[in-house]
Write a structure and sequence with these properties.
Length: 502
């Protein structure tokens, strides 16, 4: 009797690693997760241990495969936290430094120097992104500068540089494959969006030798094969690599322009497909959504640094043991914030403002302000930030955006989703699945090995959702947005936001 074949998807995130097994009907047959530590060695610095990232993947894969024994893994798909960077020794496979995560601001001074040198337009036109420490290239430059003989070793091909997907592929393949896909590469500021290849001039600007860069392959393609680790057998094709936000868009089956999704994680990403690269004039990034053998799909994206992370921060400040979930429950216990506003610019503002000098503000407090009102202000700050990016997406894309597709941990809050619909004046359609990024990676891997035959087949699969309709009075909505704009103005640095357009 032949064994059932399943697709295994790895979702390596900032705070945990999730793994699932999916069958041909799109049902999740098993899932497992492992938490991850995050270090803050200096103010504004955020890093993780690359070895721990890999160990969490192996442990979660083992748990998943143990739940569904007697099956065959048809392919592995990988989706990952984006912009985070690792440099490792090509011969030993050992990391040469920490994984510098997407949240880290240690390269702010370097990025300011790039601004002063007048490189904004070049970097924006080639990479699609404004100069900011969020993106990978400045982090990679920092690592090479702090590894003994880093630049010379990288130029000699002795070091590998890559985003988290590249690191996981390297380990899954036993060091045989150093590669990435265009979705992750487009977040490094080293990829030329139009040629979809590494840009020699950008690499020179950031001081990244070409010899340490991974090769580029379509997001849905066979990157290599496993060599066996834990319960994962050897010879299984690794058939997709894709950034987590891009994978979530794919998991929504948003295969054509006109839909916009928001992933509510530690930070948030709003993304909408475009038919070609669109130069943003409202502080967004032009990016590659995914690449398949038949072509490249482009997107506009806005990244918000602190959304769900704001809830976790407030739980720590208030010493609530239940963390972000307890804050969400507290926020739902009051109808509004009683005039309080929280702007979580803890390390600057991302899209559409791009002000790295901005700092957080809590305002509008009275003696009647309670912990529940603070929790509500934290929750509402997520919706206000998403609103700002949603509006910018509509203006840059030049199309009407009829609704918002929502996913991610913080989207579990009904209070947040309803407030989001009210502030947007659009329906919010929330995915009932907690695994949308992993599902997107699984779908892409399955397409690459013929497990599924077409996008139409995927789009026909059941995708349970919850729908939230706007019901706030227009005058109240306007009052709230005006209050948010006033609070936002208080966060801005004295120099103002840097120019985010080319």
């Amino acid at each position: 009797m032949s064994r059932e074949r399943l697709i295994l998807a790895v979702d390596q995130g900032t705070t945990n690693t999730k793994v699932l097994l999916m069958d041909r009907a799109g049902a999740v047959r098993a899932r497992a997760s492992r938490p991850l530590g995050i270090a803050f060695p200096e103010p504004g610095w955020v890093e993780q241990d690359a070895r721990e990232l890999w160990a969490s993947v192996v442990a979660a894969m083992d748990d998943c495969l143990e739940q569904v024994q007697g099956t065959e893994v048809a392919a592995v798909g990988v989706t990952n936290q984006r912009e985070s960077v690792i440099v490792w020794d090509r011969r030993s496979g050992e990391p040469a430094g920490p994984c510098i995560t997407w949240q880290c601001r240690r390269t702010a001074a370097f990025c300011a120097e790039l601004h002063e040198r007048g490189l904004d337009r070049l970097i924006r036109e080639r990479s699609g992104q404004p100069i900011d420490p969020l993106f990978s290239a400045s982090k990679a430059a920092w690592l090479l500068a702090h590894i003994p003989d880093g630049h010379s070793r990288a130029a000699a091909g002795e070091l590998c540089m890559g985003t988290v997907d590249s690191w996981l592929l390297w380990r899954l393949s036993g060091g045989a494959r150093h590669a990435t896909d265009p979705s992750n590469a487009s977040r490094t500021q080293l990829l030329n969006l139009r040629s979809v290849g590494w840009d020699a001039e950008l690499a020179k600007v950031f001081g990244i030798p070409a010899a340490c860069l991974p090769t580029l392959h379509a997001s849905s393609s066979v990157f290599g094969e496993t060599t066996g680790c834990g319960r994962m057998p050897a010879g299984v094709p690794v058939a997709s690599l894709i950034g987590d936000s891009h994978a979530a868009l794919f998991g929504h089956a948003a295969f054509v322009p006109g839909s916009v999704k928001a992933t509510y994680g530690t930070g948030s990403s709003l993304m909408t497909l475009t038919s070609a690269p669109v130069a943003s004039i409202h502080g967004l990034s032009t990016t590659i959504a995914w690449a398949r053998p038949d072509g490249v799909s482009y997107a506009l994206e806005g990244n918000i640094t602190n959304t769900g992370g704001t809830m976790q921060w407030l739980a720590q400040v208030l010493r609530l043991p239940g963390g972000a979930e307890e804050i969400a429950g507290l926020a739902g216990s009051v109808p509004d914030s009683a005039g309080a506003y929280l702007v979580p610019a803890f390390a600057g503002l991302g899209a559409p403002h791009w002000d790295s000098g901005a700092r957080g503000v809590l305002c509008g407090l009275t003696r009647g302000t309670t912990a529940a009102h603070l929790a509500r202000a934290a929750l509402e700050s997520i919706a206000f930030q998403v609103h700002d990016v949603f509006e910018a997406l509509g203006r840059d894309a030049g199309i009407a955006l009829p609704a918002l597709l929502a996913d991610g941990g913080a989207s579990r809050s009904d209070a947040l989703m309803q407030f989001q619909a009210d502030i947007l004046e659009r329906p919010v359609i929330r995915s009932s699945s907690p695994d949308l990024s992993a599902i997107g990676a699984a779908w892409l891997a399955g397409l690459a090995v013929g497990y599924w035959g077409s996008l139409e087949e995927l789009a026909a699969m059941p995708r349970p959702t919850d729908r939230f309709e706007p019901c706030m009075a227009p005058a109240r909505r306007r009052e709230l947005i005006d209050g948010w704009q006033d609070a936002l103005a208080r966060t801005k640095s004295s120099a103002g936001a840097h120019e985010a357009v080319g």
